Structure formats: C-alpha cells, structure tokens
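Lab notebook page, bench 4
Experiment: in silico fold of construct C2
Operator: M.H.
Input chain length: 194 residues
Purpose: comparison with the prior construct
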Amino acid sequence: MKRLSLILLGGIAVSSAAALGQDLPTSLHAMQSSYAASGSIVVIDKGTIVIEPRMPAPLCAMPKTEDGRITWSFYTFPLASITVPLAQVDETLISEDRVFSNPDAPRNYKPGDVGDTTMVVVASRPGKQFHTLLYDLEKFARLGPGPHSSKEYGQVPDDTEAFGLTFTDPAEARVFAVALHSAVIQARAQTAHP
C-alpha cells in the first residue's frame, strides 16, 4: 500500500509539472498582450524573454508621507531592452505602484490624488542580475525623427537587480504582474523537472 501511495504521489507531481508547462505559453502570451501599449516582449525560449520598452522612458514620481509631510521619489528606467531569465525573477517582490508621469505632479498634488501610470517593479533573486541595454535620455531627447543607431543615443550594456515597467492602464499592469508571477513559477518548475 505504501508503494502504491508513493507511485500515486510521484504521478501527481509529474502531472502537476506537465500542467504547469502547458500553461507557460498562455502566461507568456498574456504578458505580451498586456504590455503591447508600453513596448514589446520577445520570447527567446520557454525560460527567457526580452522586454523592449518604448522609448523614451517616462520620469515617474511617487509621493510618500513621512513625518506628516509629503516627499517625492523619482524614477526613470531608460532601458532599450532587458533580458529576463524567468527562473531568476523573485516572484515575491513583483510589485505594482501608482505613479505620476506629469513633471508638474509634485507642485499640483493634493492628498488622495491617484497617479496616472502604474509601475510594475521586477526584482531578481539574490545573487542574480538581469542583462540590460541602457540609453542616455538626454541624447535620445536631442535626436530628431527617423531611425537612429544605438550609438547615437548612447546605448550601453549594464546589469541590474531590479527594473520598472510602466503601464497607462492599471488593469493591463495587473494582468502583466499576475502573468509574470505565474510564468516565473512555471519556468522554475520546468527547470526543476526537465
């Protein structure tokens, strides 16, 4: 009887891993669809994606209340691309924050105002980094219309432990965050059970 239980448990584990593997393409497609208005996602293989945000990256302002007064944090992620091995994402640190993309937000802000943009922050597991291509926002801003080489806007490789992606639609940001969380779990399961 013990042997039968162990065989059944083994069969359930294999079935669960197979089911997760079948859902990975669905999660990847959901990520691509939800991010389409902000950039593109290229699937390299079942475990790696390349995210290419639209340029230029917006400057995002986030209000915080400290000691009874409002302070602001500013973020921008001038990323031409981010290579993301899904198994290296820390799914517990995927977060969504409402931020303001209007540069006048700190001056016009009233307590209770909600940001116009959602920023999804993605962090790597300890000791891991994502390979990125950064560009110089000032050089990019000076370029006129038309195609330009990466050298003209100062593109350079870099590594980072976290990055942010912006979405004008909070519902799309939510779909992306949920699909990324699912894809990370599924990719890690596939790595553990090839």
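Observations: The first strand starts at residue 39 and ends at 45. The chain is about 35% helix and 30% strand.
Next step: discuss at group meeting.
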